[in-house]
């Protein structure tokens, strides 16, 4: 029988006694149940290859497919696996000027995975292959508590608003401005509500991400300041859990009720190799921005 140990007062837990490569139906049900309460679970001591990780993830839902962002896919890697690594094709750490490494630094901002997609990520599963000795942690914020702890005025302001997300937003902030205008990453913009309801529990969450570019129907400066203020509120230290990686950890999080970010490490002398799979969240599909109307008082209040 698996055992569960809470890792922080409000959310995150460690589950021991489950082998992801040989999980029973009861094991999968145990994890599903734990996710409802804890939103982040850590399964330590796993030994899984890419196929085993994808097979395990697929038991929780339809797998997300990643873009052709690197040579990994040209070399035949499955589209439902994502390498999160600072190693180049030669197996050595890439240089500080490497474009992929610089683009990946967008992960250092608080975000939810694939919020720039029409159907964003539900569960992300990150497996530690080679982990850092110092730095490189992954931090999580509980977005249910982020909503619950807003004062009533803020709740009234945020309810009904939606943000437009793009995969280029965080990268533009990092200084990348050379995207071709016909690049699907530039043209694909989707609109997600700022406040969501989790179908399993009925609890509300704030749905924020560094991919959120602006608030629909609000002047861009007002909307960006509101997004910044809400992110600051959501990621106060008492609402954050920090996972320090050990090799063999499989960390599962629900992107609908958490935000996360990676922490810095010395990429010139450490190796960090993680492998991600995600399922998709059809109930969180983007909506048509045409029907969104923002009353003037909300614009004033957001200023
Ligand atoms: Fe992420």
Write the layout of secondary structure elements.
Layout: E1 3-6, E2 13-16, H1 25-38, E3 40-43, H2 50-58, H3 71-74, E4 82-85, H4 99-104, E5 121-130, E6 138-142, H5 143-148, H6 152-158, E7 162-165, H7 169-173, H8 184-187, E8 190-193, E9 195-197, E10 204-206, E11 212-215, H9 220-234, E12 240-243, E13 250-254, E14 258-262, E15 273-280, H10 296-302
Parallel strand pairs: 2-3
Antiparallel strand pairs: 1-2, 3-13, 4-15, 5-13, 5-15, 6-12, 6-14, 7-8, 7-11, 9-10
Bound molecules: fe (ii) ion (FE2).
Fe (ii) ion binds next to loops.
Keywords:
303 residues, alpha+beta, Double-stranded beta-helix, 7-stranded mixed sheet, 3-stranded antiparallel sheet, 15 strands, 25% helix, binds fe (ii) ion
Q: How is this structure best described in words?
A:
With 303 residues, the chain is α+β, with helices and mostly antiparallel strands. It has a single domain (3-302), classed as Double-stranded beta-helix (4-Layer Sandwich). The protein is 25% helix and 23% strand. The protein contains ten helices and 15 strands. It has a seven-stranded mixed sheet, covered by helices on one side. Strand 9 (195-197) and strand 10 (204-206) form a beta hairpin. Bound molecules: fe (ii) ion. Residues 107, 111, 113, 260 line the site of fe (ii) ion.
């Amino acid at each position: 029988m698996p055992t569960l140990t809470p890792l922080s007062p409000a959310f995150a837990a460690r589950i021991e006694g489950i082998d992801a490569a040989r999980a029973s139906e009861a094991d999968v049900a145990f994890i599903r149940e734990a996710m409802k309460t804890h939103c982040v679970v850590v399964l330590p001591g796993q030994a899984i290859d890419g196929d085993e990780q994808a097979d395990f993830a697929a038991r929780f839902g339809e797998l997300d497919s990643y873009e052709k962002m690197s040579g990994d896919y040209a070399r035949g890697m499955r589209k439902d696996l994502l390498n999160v690594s600072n190693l180049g094709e030669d197996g050595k750490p890439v240089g500080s000027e490497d474009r992929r490494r610089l683009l990946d630094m967008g992960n250092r901002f608080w975000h939810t995975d694939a919020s720039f997609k029409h159907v964003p990520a539900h569960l992300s599963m990150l497996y530690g292959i080679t982990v850092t000795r110092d730095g490189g942690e992954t931090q999580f914020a509980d977005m249910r508590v982020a909503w619950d702890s807003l004062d009533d005025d803020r709740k009234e302001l945020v309810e009904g608003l939606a943000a437009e997300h793009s995969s280029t937003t965080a990268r533009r902030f990092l200084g990348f401005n050379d995207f071709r205008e016909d690049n699907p990453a530039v043209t694909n913009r989707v609109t997600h509500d700022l406040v969501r309801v989790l179908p399993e529990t009925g609890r509300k969450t704030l749905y924020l991400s560094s991919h959120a570019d602006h608030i629909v129907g609000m002047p861009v400066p007002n909307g960006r300041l509101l997004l910044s203020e809400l992110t600051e509120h959501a990621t106060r230290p008492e609402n954050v859990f920090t996972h320090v990686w050990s090799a063999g950890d499989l960390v599962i999080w629900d992107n609908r009720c958490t935000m996360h970010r990676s922490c810095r490490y010395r990429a010139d002398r450490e190796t960090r190799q993680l492998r991600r799979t995600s399922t998709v969240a059809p109930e969180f599909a983007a909506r048509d921005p045409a029907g969104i109307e923002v009353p003037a008082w909300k614009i004033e209040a957001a200023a």
